[in-house]
Amino acid sequence: MSDQVDVCVLIAAGVEWRALLPHFPLAETLPTPYGEAFTTSIASQQVCFFHSGWGKVAAAGGTQYAIDRWGPRWLINLGTCGGVEGMVDVNDMILAEETVIYDIIEGMSSYQAAIEHYAVQPNLDWLGTNLPFPVKRLKLYSADRDIRPVDVSGILREFGAAVADWESGAFAWVCARNHKNWLVLRTVTDLVSDQFAEALGNADLWKQRTAQVMASLLNTLPWLIERYLQTHS
Question: Which of 81, 98, 100, 147 could disulfide-link 165, Cβ–Cβ 3.0 to 4.6 Å?
Answer without folding.
Answer: 81
